[in-house]
Design goal:
By secondary structure, the chain is mostly beta strands. The chain has no helices and 13 strands. A hairpin with a 7-residue loop joins strand 10 and strand 11.
């Protein structure tokens, strides 16, 4: 590769700015930007219809990093394209194969895969209210509503109880 240097200074009194007519070899070394590396390999679980906050931040690269979603994300969660912050209120309970792609100013990229698990209700705060309803002898049932989830069991007789589990 050849570079040509040109003296564009028009002030003849500025001696320091003028190039001399000698030829000299120059070495130009270009170092690559540091690799883009994610600061975490996993994300915390979330709870359905409860505020969520996490980060998929990365370091390295050159210039400003830009974040984007890949894979399948829980409805209601957003990714900040400047910081990698993940916030919102998930409105679907399941396990999601989500990912984040980061690009730097020169187009270098890195992608991190995550599993975001959204549970229906926090197990540590589970409180069940059981209602047993009399049905015909061949079809008796209990409808149990626990937290935000609903469960049907087959059984019993007419009564009502509150189990504080």
């Amino acid at each position: 590769m050849t570079f040509k240097l040109t003296d564009s200074d028009t002030d003849p009194g500025n001696v320091a700015a003028h190039l001399t007519a000698t030829s000299q070899a120059l070495t130009l070394t270009i170092y690559p930007a540091p690799a883009i590396v994610f600061t975490n390999a996993s994300l915390p679980a979330g709870t359905y219809n409860v505020s969520y906050s996490a980060s998929a931040a990365a370091t390295g690269g050159a210039g400003t990093l830009t974040y984007s979603k890949t894979g399948t994300w829980p409805t209601g969660l957003n990714l900040n394209t400047s910081s990698g912050a993940i916030t919102g209120i998930p409105t679907a309970a399941a396990s999601f194969a989500a990912g984040v792609k980061v690009a730097d100013a020169f187009g270098d990229t890195a992608t991190q895969s995550y599993t975001i698990v959204v549970i229906r209700f926090p197990l540590s705060h589970r409180r069940c209210y059981c209602y047993q309803v009399y049905c015909s002898p061949k079809e008796q049932r209990v409808e149990r509503a626990c937290g935000l989830g609903f469960y049907l069991d087959r059984c019993c007789y007419h009564t009502s109880m509150n189990s504080g589990r």
